[in-house]
């Protein structure tokens, strides 16, 4: 194991970036390896193809690479590229186990990946907000955050 979490995360990234299939466990053979004291531990792979995740603007897309042996009918069943909505990203990040987080070099208590997606926007009450000049500087208001939140909501609606 690599002690430095950043170096560990980089090592995991370098190892995994070329893996495009969730490799399934080897089938157990009754005759093969019967004299071993310790059975080989599986990693629980499902055999599914792993997509490439690409960012375009503020949106994430998943892209599947097609195999050389796939024919036209199979190509039409699975899309080349599809939108990866935030709720699916959040669900995928939430499914990462504590042991996997430790292997990735992330802290279970302080750096859960799903915490990087804002699901709740904290807003301080008006008395603690700083006052700002509104509409040309003649009026002062502590409600600047309300204006900014309105801008965020309008931008989200446009996206």
From TrEMBL:
It is an enzyme of class 2 (transferase). This is DNA-directed RNA polymerase. The keyword Metal-binding does not apply. It comes from the Eukaryota. SUPFAM superfamilies: beta and beta-prime subunits of DNA dependent RNA-polymerase (SSF64484). Keywords: DNA-directed RNA polymerase, Nucleotidyltransferase, Transcription, Transferase. Its EC number is 2.7.7.6. PANTHER family: DNA-DIRECTED RNA POLYMERASE (PTHR19376), DNA-DIRECTED RNA POLYMERASE II SUBUNIT RPB1 (PTHR19376:SF37). GO terms for molecular function: DNA binding; DNA-directed RNA polymerase activity. GO terms for cellular component: RNA polymerase II, core complex. It comes from Ganoderma zonatum. Residues 23-36 have a biased composition (Acidic residues). Residues 2-157 form the RNA polymerase Rpb1 domain. One of its GO terms (biological process) is DNA-templated transcription. Residues 20-51 are annotated as: Disordered. The keyword Transcription applies. It holds the Pfam family RNA_pol_Rpb1_1.
């Amino acid at each position: 194991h690599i002690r430095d979490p950043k170096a560990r995360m980089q090592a995991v990234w370098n190892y995994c970036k070329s893996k495009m299939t969730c490799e399934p466990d080897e089938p157990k053979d009754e005759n093969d390896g019967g004299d071993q004291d310790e059975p080989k531990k599986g990693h629980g792979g499902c055999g599914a193809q792993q997509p490439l995740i690409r960012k375009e603007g503020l949106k994430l897309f998943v892209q599947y690479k097609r195999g050389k042996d796939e024919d036209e009918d199979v190509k039409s069943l699975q899309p080349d590229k599809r939108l990866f909505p935030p709720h699916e990203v959040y669900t995928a990040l939430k499914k990462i186990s504590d042991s996997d987080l430790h292997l990735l070099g992330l802290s279970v208590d302080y750096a859960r990946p799903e915490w990087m997606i804002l699901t709740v926007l904290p807003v301080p009450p008006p008395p603690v907000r700083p006052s700002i000049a509104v509409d040309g500087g003649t009026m002062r208001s502590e409600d600047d955050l309300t204006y900014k939140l309105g801008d965020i909501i309008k931008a989200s609606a446009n996206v």
